[in-house]
C-alpha cells in the first residue's frame, strides 16, 4: 500500500501567523532583500509550508496587503449605521476622524505603506491592490457616512466622494508624511495628533454647515 | 618642474547636469541598485568627476534632494507678497492651491518622493532632509500667506500652521497617494485634478470665512 502523498491543509491559524510575522522581516530586509528562509524562520514554519500556503514571496506579500487592508477597512463598514443615530455633526465627524487617524496611523499600516510605495514601480499589481482594497474602499465608506449625514440634514455634502477625500487628507497628510520622512527621528506625539484631529473636525464641519 | 595636480573645479553647469540626469537612473534601478558607473554615464561624465562633485552616491542623492526641494519651495516665497494685493479670499486660495498642486504633483517630485520613502528606514538623514527642506518650508510659506489673508480680514485663520497643512492635505492626499500606489496604471487626469482643486478651494474658503 502506497503512503498517501497528500499533506494536511495549512490551518488558518498558521497562515495568519506567517502573515503576522512576515511584516517585520520585510521591514528589516526590504521586500527584495527578505528571503523565504528568513520569512519561514520568523514564523517558525518550514519553507515548504510557506510555499504551500502562499506559492512564493510575492504571493505572501500580496496576502499581507489583503489582510492589512481588510484590518483597516472592516471597522469602517459599521460606521454607516452609527451615522444614522449620531446626535450632532461634530460628534459624527469626530468619530470618523478618530477612527481614520487611529487605524491608518498605526505602525503596521505605515510600515506596509512604505514597503508598497518602494515596490510599486517594480510590482505595479501590488500598488494597485493596496489602492483598490485600501484607499478606494475606505474612501467609499467615508463617503457613505457623509451621505447619511447629508440625508439627515446634519451637514450639507453635495459631493460626498470629494468631501471624504478632503477629510482624510486634512487629517492624514502631515502625520503620514511625517512618519514616511522624518518619523524615525521625530514621531508625532499623541498631543500633536490630537491637535490635528481637533482642527480637522472643526474645519470640516464649518465647511459643510 | 612638477605638473600641478590641481584640477579645474566642477562647473555649476556640469553639477546641475549630473543632478538632472541622476533621477532617471535612481528611478530605474532603485537607490541601492543604481551604480556610480551608471550615474556618471547618464550625465556623460567620468566617475572621477562625479566623486569630485558629490563625494559618493549618498552625497549625490542628498544634493538631488536639496535641489528638488528648492525647486518646489522657491516659487512659494514670492506668494506672501502676492497675498497682500490679491482681491478675494477665493482668488488667493485658488492661487495657493494651483501652485501647490502643480509643483508637488510634478513627475520629478513624485518620483523623488517614492525614492526617499523607500530609503528613509536605511538612511534616516535623507528622509529628515526631505522633510525639513521640503515639507516644513513649504508649510511655513503657506502659513505666512494665510496669516496675511487673516490680517487683511479676507479669511479668519487663527491657526495658520494647522490650516496650511489642511489645505495641502485636502488637495494632495488623494492625487499623491494615487500616484504612489495606482499611478502607474491609472494616472489622475487633468480634469480629475481640477475637480479636486475646485472642491478644495471651496471647502477651505467656507471653513475660514
From TrEMBL, chains A, B:
GO terms for molecular function: DNA-binding transcription factor activity; transcription cis-regulatory region binding. Residues 12-72 form the HTH tetR-type domain. Keywords: DNA-binding. The keyword Transmembrane does not apply. Residues 35-54 bind DNA. The keyword Hydrolase does not apply. This is HTH tetR-type domain-containing protein.
